[in-house]
Amino acid sequence: NLSNRQSREMETIITLYAQQREMYQTKTHRIDNRIVSICQPHVRPIVRGKARAETEFGAKVAISMVDGYAFIDHLSWDSFNESLDLKQAVENYKQRYGYYPEAVLADQLYRNRENLSFCREHGIRLSGPPLGRRPLDSKAKEISRQDMRERNAVEGGFGVCKRRYGLARIMARLKETAESVIALQFLVMNLEHRLRLLFCHFICATLRRLWEPKLYWLSKNSF
């Protein structure tokens, strides 16, 4: 006479017991699809190796930033290799705008031979030094440094979304609800970025309307 929720939790407990028993018998501390929460069995431990927390729990999100707007390319509760998503992110860009990007400012992790070959075929410049010996050209070094400065917008987007929009504190328990909350947080961040641009455009248009007659009068009466 268990309810639907209790039945799901019972199945989770049975799976959890089987996983713990297998790790105990094999004397290991790792198993695929490891369950760490009975009420949230979809949550997986993801080893990040950071100084603050070596292991993190929650969804892993890969985003791409275009003109200050964030687009979710991959969202998963399991750990994944971000470098494998570069092709799909580029194809998503072409689907949105109708053409391939001029450059992709990515981390060193994305600079493997497969991604470099893909970008070379489509005329895309992938940021960072080429594989092998580092170039001695000062212009190439300056371009690489400029790409790294512009790429900081992606890390900044994650930081802003965690601090201001609650990305670091997902309170939803269900998998589908948590994914919706994450998508809405990026949506709100993009809307605020759009509002800031519209506000700047409004201020510039207002100042231009106020100062253009005075500038015209000064140019007309100047000697």
Write up what this structure looks like.
The protein has 223 residues and is mostly helical. Helices cover 53% and strands 11% of the residues. It is built from five helices and six strands. The relative contact order is 0.08.
Brief description of this entry?
The protein is mainly alpha-helical and 223 residues long. It has helices spanning 4-26, 86-97, 113-121, 138-164, 175-221; strands at residues 45-47, 55-57, 60-66, 69-76, 103-104, 125-126.
Provide the spatial order of strands within the biggest beta sheet.
1-2
How far apart the termini lie comes to: 96 Å
Instruction: Report on the biggest sheet.
Output: 2 strands, antiparallel
What fraction, in percent, of the residue positions are helical? 40-55%
Number of helices, counting only DSSP H or I runs of 4 residues or more:
5
How big a fraction of the residues is strand?
5-15%
- Low-confidence segments, given as residue ranges, are none
Shape: globular
What class would the helix/strand composition place it in?
Answer: mainly alpha
Total count of strands: 6
What is the N-to-C order of secondary-structure elements (H for helix, E for strand)? HEEEEHEHEHH
Instruction: Provide mean pLDDT, rounded.
Output: 82
